[in-house]
Design a protein that fits this description.
single chain, alpha/beta, Rossmann fold, Helicase, Ruva Protein, domain 3, two-stranded antiparallel sheet, 11 helices
Length: about 290
């Protein structure tokens, strides 16, 4: 894994910057305390937040979906980058702080109170959008796999810039043969390009989580032809559901899978973690036919 890159050269050109109070002052004034039940950990370092907002590239005039903005730390950075932000927040305590941001950046911020797991982003935008979020840890992986799923491709989102626990981030970019390699890596890599853009030390958060975090950036890639996304999901679910067993055992419950291995010349005595993404795609393509 590479060292944290220098993103200073890609920081957005400065925009008119409203005189905003420090984030800690906003949190204290509104009595906001991060709650474990909502997977909240607040970031107050505005230089760090600016670097995160720079990861997707130029955002001026672009639509950005933010999930779980909390008191609006990353939201500030996205707005300063010129983005038109739609933020989904289910913690009503944070809404007054976000309303202050909406007043400071007229016309740039729309706040929706609700559960992001129950809202289809396609209903929120008339044009493609980016996703940038310090995702709540308790729903981050579910949201991520949801954005990667479905047969329609390329997706309507242009990029995903997401905070994960470092362990999850490493699973997303993992290569075959590694302990981190599994279903999440295949689903993230078969038609998209994920990378770890930067690591974030636990001490940067309030309260500090028990683990390190990382920013994962994902851009859509070409989708292999002749493959059902749902079939690939079924193949990986079966294969990695019993990852320590040979494929002849883990895939025997999936109709046609063992015949597909034979047709493709894939040894049924191999285990799932030894197959690369292209081999999983080949199996799914054969079963799709």
């Amino acid at each position: 894994m590479t060292d944290q890159p220098d993103l200073s050269a890609s920081l957005p050109t400065a925009l008119p910057n409203p005189d905003l109070p420090p984030l800690r002052e906003v949190v204290n004034r509104h009595g906001l305390i991060a709650t474990k039940a909502l997977g909240q950990n607040f970031l107050f370092d505005e230089q760090l937040l600016g670097r995160i907002a720079a990861v997707p590239g130029k955002l001026r005039g672009q639509n950005v979906l933010e999930v779980g903005p909390g008191p609006g730390g990353l939201t500030r950075a996205l707005l300063r980058a010129g983005a038109n932000v739609t933020a989904i927040e289910m913690d009503r305590r944070c809404l007054p702080a976000l309303a202050e941001l909406a007043e400071a950046f007229p016309g740039q911020l729309r706040v929706i109170e609700g559960d992001a797991t129950k809202i289809d982003p396609a209903t929120l935008f008339d044009a493609p959008w980016h996703v940038a979020a310090n995702l709540p840890y308790n729903v981050g992986t579910m949201l991520f796999t949801g954005w990667l799923s479905g047969q329609a491709w390329p997706p309507q989102w242009r990029s995903l810039t997401l905070m994960f626990q470092l362990e999850v981030a490493e699973r997303i970019i993992a290569r075959p043969g590694s302990d981190a390699y599994g279903r999440l890596a295949v689903l993230a890599q078969w038609r998209a390009t994920p990378r770890i853009a930067m690591k974030v030390h636990r001490s940067a958060f309030t309260p500090p989580p028990k683990v390190m975090s990382a920013i994962v950036h994902v851009e859509p890639a070409a989708m292999p032809e002749g493959v059902s996304a749902r079939m690939l999901e079924r193949v990986t679910e079966a294969a990695f559901g019993q990852r320590r067993k040979m494929l002849r055992q883990s895939l025997k419950g999936l109709p046609g899978a063992l015949d597909a291995l034979e047709v493709l010349g894939i040894d049924a005595q191999r285990r799932a973690e030894t197959l690369d993404v292209a081999e999983f795609v080949a199996i799914a393509r054969t079963l799709t036919k």
